[in-house]
Amino acid sequence: MSIIDTTARAKANEDQKSAAADKAWSMPDWGVTAISLIVLIGIWEAAAPFIDPLFGSYPSQIFSSFLVMMESGTLVKAFWQSIQPFFAGYLLAALIGIPAGLLLGRYRVAEAALGIYVTAGYATPLIALVPLLMVWFGLGFAVKMVIIFLLAFFPVCINTWVGVKAVPKTLIEVGTAFCAPQSRIMRQIVLPATLPYIMAGLRLAIGKAVIAMIIAEFLTAISGLGGIIINAANSFRTAEMFVPIICVMIFAVVLDRLVACLERKVAPWQSEIAGEHE
């Protein structure tokens, strides 16, 4: 037996032992997440005696404020006010951003003509445009929807654009060789290959849209969850201020998980590829 064979066999044995150890001590992802969350809450609650109520809060006090706000209906009403412009702006960003990204990535003329504006728009501090948007759209639902749309549009569009550019040219050449029309190449070759990028863009856009939702409620008509945060902060009701912040965080995580589940449905091969690399 050669030295190479001996080394290869020893490496294989080590890999088998490592895999067996990982399997023996394996735990579902949700279990690890739950444990980390419990530890975080426990440490935070243990630090309660050292927290000044004016400048911070702790889980039990925040939960008490949550119950009071739920009982009064304040939190539910504010949440409903916030998610209406959120979903309108986010869905509009997806409906426009995906086709725009496909167009920019697939057609060189479109990329040359419009790509620079998408790049410039992404780099523009859009929050600085809020005063102008308020003049154009007022202080109500429309301006909030537009702000959310503008912040969510670019991650979706740019990710889709990059995804189309990453499609192997050989796949497109095969479609062309079989005389497939451009619409069919787009539908059956480009779009499936770009789906992982599109879903990643949609997930990134969730965070941008949530941030835009709160900023819009800060800077326009004070309402919704952002309104609760502002009013509680101005009155130094710190525990009450934390309630909508945590609700927004949970809302974003839930939406991210839903989009991840959707990705497994529409692009199941991506999950298989990811599993091979774990």
UniProtKB/TrEMBL annotation:
It is a multi-pass membrane protein. The chain crosses the membrane at residues 30-50, 86-104, 116-139, 145-164, 209-230, 242-260. Keywords: Cell membrane, Membrane, Transmembrane, Transmembrane helix, Transport. Its main location: membrane. Residues 79-259 form the ABC transmembrane type-1 domain. The keyword Transmembrane helix applies. InterPro entries: MetI-like, MetI-like_sf. It is found in: Cell membrane. The keyword Transport applies. GO terms for cellular component: plasma membrane. One of its GO terms (biological process) is transmembrane transport. It comes from the Bacteria. Belongs to the binding-protein-dependent transport system permease family. This is Amino acid ABC transporter permease. The lineage of its organism: Bacteria, Pseudomonadati, Pseudomonadota, Alphaproteobacteria, Hyphomicrobiales.
